[in-house]
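hey can u check if this looks right to u? its 360 residues, i copy pasted from the old doc so theres a chance i mangled smth
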Amino acid sequence: MSRLKFDINFRRGDYQLEASFAVADGLTLLIGPNGGGKSSLLRLLAGLEQPLSGQISIGGRKLLDTEQKINRPPSARNIGMLFQELALFPHLDVSGNVAFGLKARGVDASRRRQKVAAILARFEMSKYAGSQIRQLSQGERQKVALARALVTEPQLLLLDEPTAALDQESRWQFRRWLSEILRDWQIPMLMATHDPADTAYFRKRILLLEDGKIRQHGSYHQLLHAPTTPFVADFAGVNYLLGEICRPQGKLIFRSRGGSIFLAPFEKVREGQACLTVFPWDVSLYRERPAGSPRNQLYGKIQDVIILGDRVRITLVKADKLVAELSTRGYQALGEPRSGEMLWAVFKARESRIENLAVL
C-alpha cells in the first residue's frame, strides 16, 4: 500500500492552511467551500506551492520534510496531476501531449510510443492520436489530460475539479468512465470537487477541508447522517438548522436562529446551543396548511426547483430554509409549483435529529 501522509502548515497573507491526514490507495474526494483550501492543498502536495513547515510522504518515501530540509521538486515527486484548466499544449497533437511527461523524464522514443499507444487504447482514444487538441470535445480533452497524468505511472494522482468544465450529461458519462479507469491504478488519488453529484457518485471516502482545516472525513453515508458543519449538510443535501434548545414555558423546544419553533426528540440533549437536521425526503409539502396532529411546519416561498431524474428538490425560504425532496408524481400532484409560490413544509418531530453544540 502506497499510503499518502501529509502534515502541512501553509500561509499566504491572512489565509492559513493546517492539514494533517493519511490517504489510502484508491479515490478520496476532497470537498469544501470556495477558499477552503482544496486547490492549495493539491498544489502543496505536488510541490507547486511551498509550506511554512510540514512533511509529505508516499509509501514511506519522503517528498517533503522541512525539519530534515528535504524538499523534492515537482519533477522528482512522481505525482500525476489533472489541472482544472487541463493545461494541454495546443501546438502538440494528442500523442505529443500524452508523451510530454515521458519525454521530460528521458524515456526513449520507442518506449514512449509503446506507452502512449497502450494508454490511448485503454482510454479508447487511439483514433485521436494524431488529432489536434482544438478538434476534441471537452470530455475528450479530459481523457487526454488524464492519460498524460497516468502514463508516467505516478505514485499519487491529484485531480482538481475534473468535472467542472463539463455539461451535466458529460459529467455523468465522465464519472462512469473515470470510476472504471481508476480501478486499474492501485495508488492514492485525491480529487477536489465542488459538485455534490460527484460526492454521491464517488461516495466511499470523503475529506472536508473548510477554513484551511480538515473538519470531517468519512463515507457519504456518514456525512449524510452526521454532518458536523452547515457546509457539509448543504453539500450532502441535509437540512441543517442552527439554534438553541430552550424551555420557555416548561416544555423543551428548538428555536432556530431564524426564529422558527420546532419539536424534536429531546431525550438525549440539554438546553443550550444546538443543531437540528432533517432529511429532505422526510419533509412533506402542501398547498394548504395541513390539519390533524401537530407537526413541525414552515410556510415559505419557493426559492428554487431542481429536477433530478425521477426526484424533485424544492427549497422553501422564510426566515429559515427547508429543502424537500419528492417524487415527480408527488410534484405533479402538487400542480408543479414554481419559484415564488408559497407552500407549507411539514415534518414530524421524530423524523428530525437534534444535538448540542459546544461552540458556535
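The CA atoms of residues 274 and 333 lie 35 Å apart.
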